[in-house]
Amino acid sequence: MNLEQEKRSAAREALRFIHDGDIVGLGTGSTFNLILAPLAERVRVGLKILCIATSNQTANAAAELGIPLTTLDEHQEINVDIDGADEIDPRLALIKGGGGAFLREKIVASAAKKLVIVADSTKQVTMLGKAPVPVEVVPFAQALVAKEIQGLGASVNLRKDKQGKIFVTDESHHILDCHFGEIRDPRNLERQLEEIPGVVGHGLFIGMASVVLIGKGSTVIELHAKE
After folding, report:
1. What pLDDT sits at residue 227?
2. Cα dist. 39→13, 61, 83 in Å?
3. Which of 23, 67, 84, 159 would you call most buried, defined as having the most Cβ atoms within 10 angstroms of its Cβ?
4. Residue 1 above 70 pLDDT?
5. Distance (Å, whole) CA 6 – CA 215
6. Pairing state of beta strands 115-120 and 219-224?
7. Catalytic site residues?
């Protein structure tokens, strides 16, 4: 199994959801990055779109490739948002945030008519929880939030970068990576996290994905949210 090829196959399939004249949300992360070059090629041959990036990293990469960008100030309605995920359960609930941009990703996804998720086969799980749930916090409240989340049964780690420095988001917040183990009731956990003062956002995306494209061997499986 070539996971890189699975990602590329799913990324190519995602392009068919983008149409001339669309406002397009651009996700963040290693899987999503595989979409940028083929999307830029479509733009070069005449596709007319405007894109809203979910991170400074994605915005810079898109600009370098000649993909036209806009902002939520200019466009509050997005036709389609393309992004990746760390875990996908059978109901298309997601854990996102490995790249640290999940706050902006959720904002863009909430404004999109359709959220299309691209992933390789390792991201499909029977129950969320092998991956940590990232929680974005105001630095002032970091210790208090960590204590509250530990009280919910999680082990909590402050995210750091490759140099060992505290990871700082594009919104100047910190991230707590919270390992809950099997998450049997994602909706309840979502509610509990959102009730903690100092929490700015979290990586549980429940009821948001419209379509999930999963590369599996030489094929791409397409899953749709149930009405």
Report:
1. 58
2. 11, 12, 13
3. 84
4. no
5. 4
6. unpaired
7. 105
